[in-house]
User: Fold this.
Amino acid sequence: MGLEPGLVLILMLVVGFACQWLAWRVRLPAILFLLVAGIGLGPVSGVLIPDKLMGDLLFPVVSLAVAIILFEGSLTLRFSELSGIGNAVRGLVSYGAVLALLLLAVAAHVIAGLSWELSLLFGALTCVTGPTVIAPMLRTVRPNARIANVLRWEGIVIDPIGALFAVLVYEAIVSRREGHSIQVFLGTIACGVLVGAIAAFVLGRLLRRQSIPEYLQNYGTLAAVLGAFGVSNYVAHESGLLAVTIMGIALGNMRGVHVDDIMDFKEHLTTLLVSSLFIMLAARLGWPLPPGILFAGIAIFLVAQFLIRPLSVVISSVGSGLTWRERALIAWVAPRGIVAASVSALFALRLEKAGMAGADRLVPLVFLLIIGTVVFQSATARPIARWLGVAEPEPRGVLIFGADEVALEIARALQQAGDFRVVVADDDWNGIRRARMDGITTFFGNPASQAADRKLDLTGVGHLLAMSTHRELNSLVSVHYRETFGRDKVYRLRNLSPEESHGRASLAGSLLAPALFAEDMTHARFGELLHEGWHIKSTRLTETFDWPHFIEQYGSRTVLLFGVDDKQQLRIAGGMHDLEPRPSWTVIALVPPSENDGAR
Assistant:
């Protein structure tokens, strides 16, 4: 006896969350667990039968979900960023992507026997990587900054470009199958571009003029996206996906339109849609697979991994300044993700409905390539990076949450005192601007957000100092980065004194990271001392000038902040253990003005 439809939907949501959580715990792309869960719920157990569960709504639901996914991805593409991402990334997302598309199409045609039409569609769908699969892999591999930047920017930029490739190829296939002339095809493209541009222009003006109240902006944007999708499809058949892709790119590049909150909402919605969609689409896979598909999928994966990706990287990175070792690791890492899985399933549904022979083979081949690249590269990329000598050593850098005077003084002192990376993250634009003027690497936004998971470069970073003025956000960020850095590498600066933080004002112990510095040191107290003339002093200790001599010179009120040992490891004062600086260490301390001025 099967489960009721309502229970099946609830089960799908719960399993989707469990897959996302498991992916976060083990630092692997969530798509892998979602696909496995879908296969387990669908063809293996028969609990989830999407065609029976959704009926006639399956096609519209998948179409609308893919439209939202494509809009969210294209909203992240900034033309202003293309000029600063280097020759390698520009090559990978332009002629390198076209080369990969064509070579993958040839592989699909020769190995799997797909028609040239479906082969070109397969190439367009699988020539892209994406931030949702690249980001967790980079956290595991930890390559050097140049490799990480190339791979991260490639995933961000090529995601919407790949979607545009796939939509254009699909439009060409549909026009040809329906006997449309080239004029009809161009008309379909023109309709999608025009509707998307107009929708972006109208929505952008409304947002810029604050004509939509803030609490309705996310709702209004979602309605506008789906409205543009429906209108475009009504005017010109199958032009809706192109319209929402163009709409996202145009809206994301409009001046004076702040889309950060909209992007956060879309990211949350996309996470829900992707989780449910992948499980549902994987559940539709026939099992066992059609004859020859498993062998063909494995063969295409091997060709893509060992021939197509290396060739496209070699050609794309000419003149980039990357070493051959860096190019080799970039050629090794190219997992496929959201665009390939979701869009391929939608197009396969449409082409199967249109009666196109071989359309049922498209999704299994795409999913096999996704599983192959994610599993193989996740297991081998870190050892390959170490063997090539391009993996980062043990992360010693610091992520500082907060950009006020206290946090920036700490950031400046750490950047000057040690040979390790310092990153300041906050949503206070004035503080971030001051940090950038001081040459400090920054991230504008909440470091615990999904945007940070995609764009915050943590290469070489191994500690978190939560030093913002927002106590609850400090706790949230601390909990978020425990899994990334470890509990012993996450600290917070108190916002309340021990006497004040009791009873109803206290937070649960599980939400609190070890406190920084002296027991009576709070954020407010630190700021007061700076205004009174105290300042941060960095000194290298020796056998003849050790820590007791430092205290003797600068006074007993000196507050020890950090130590950098002879192995350039950062030692942090506070927490559970007292810090005892030794000769050959560099100490960073807050010293009072009177003793310091007298020492001068």
Summary: Residues 503-510 have pLDDT under 50 and may be disordered.
